[in-house]
Amino acid sequence: MDKIKKKKFHAVCCVIVTYGNRLHFLFKVLERLQLLDVKNIVIVNNGLTQHAKEQLKDAIGKFSWAKIKIVSFASNVGSAKGFSRGIKEALKTKCRFIWMLDDDLLPNTNALEEMLSVWDEIDIQEKEYNLILFANREDKKLYTTALLLSNPNIVIGYKNQFRSLHVGHLFSSVYVKYTMKNIISQRTNVKFGEIASGYFGGMFFHRNLIDRLGYPNEDFVLYMDDVDFTYRNKITGGRNVLVLSSLIHDLEESWNASKKNSAIFQIALWENFTKLYYSIRNRVYFERVYTTNNTVIYFINMVIYSSLVIVYALLQGKIKNIKVYCEAVRDGIKKKLGVNSKYPLN
Predict the structure, then answer these.
(1) Which is the most buried residue in 56, 98, 166, 345, by most CB within 10 A?
(2) How many C-beta atoms lie closer than 10 Å to residue 297's C-beta?
(3) In 10 A of CB 333, how many CB atoms?
(4) What parts of the chain have a pLDDT lower than 70?
């Protein structure tokens, strides 16, 4: 690797949030970052088990090739607060760029090089304050579809849509799902393109972005904090760009990625009520704040969607799911964020 590339790689600080007992994933990611020649790393201990804490402390010595800062929380405080704290620590370094990863996201060996290449290629005014790049994740096919269809807003949905449902766009939604696989399999020579919002795991930006945009909203606690952060970038004049050539692989399937049923039916069956509550509440809040301009249409979509959820849950005998779902929808409509003590984080 030439000296110029090494210098650029050394200007990157990687922020990784981990929790529970997932060090077997984290260590694989750290080994990959060594290959990528990343020299500055912030690890956010977001409620590791005691055994995992001891393992991490013992293992840091073998990662002496990098400057690793460990930030610890006594318990899981959620992704929003975890990444916010990680960013704050990264800003204490002299690194120009911040690259955010989950503990189970393994970048390709050329992922960082591709990210820096696209950063240099994009020519916009004051991009240090306005540009966010995203690595290409296998579990985020909708984002690739939005890019290749030149329709960035696919990732956040239609105006007045309630979760995945808008009665006025049923055929459009079916078309997107039907064509998604074909579109992705026909990635010609497209290298990057715009999306309306993105995700923390794989996000890349210049340190100056925080001066303009601020930190993630910690009141989201869990879920949609990344969508809110990146959509705020878009609506305040920034650009969100997905880099198809910067690939990142998931070492663990997303908690709901393997479900074959529609999201409507998944809600009626989920047993992790904490994830159910925050995912529903925060999505509804986001819709009420950003994508609702006709309350009547929005509530029609909500009633239809919720009726399907409730009927299916009743048929399955999942009364608690109905209660949690309704509470989450109510709090989202009221724009009530923050920690709900009924649903503690694991």
Answers:
(1) 98
(2) 18
(3) 17
(4) 1-9, 171-188, 253-261
Measured CA to CA, the distance from residue 7 to residue 55 in angstroms comes to 31
Burial string for 104-131 (b: 16+ CB within 10 Å, else e) reads bbbbbeebbbbbbbbbeeeeeeebebbb
Spatial CA neighbour of 247 closest among 138, 155, 142, 140: 138
Q: What is the pLDDT of residues 59-105, one digit of tens each?
A: 888 888 899 999 999 899 999 999 999 999 999 999 999 999 999 99
Question: Which pLDDT value is given to residue 15?
Answer: 98
Q: Quote the pTM value.
A: 0.92
User: Is 265 in contact with 278 (CB distance < 8 Å)?
Assistant: no
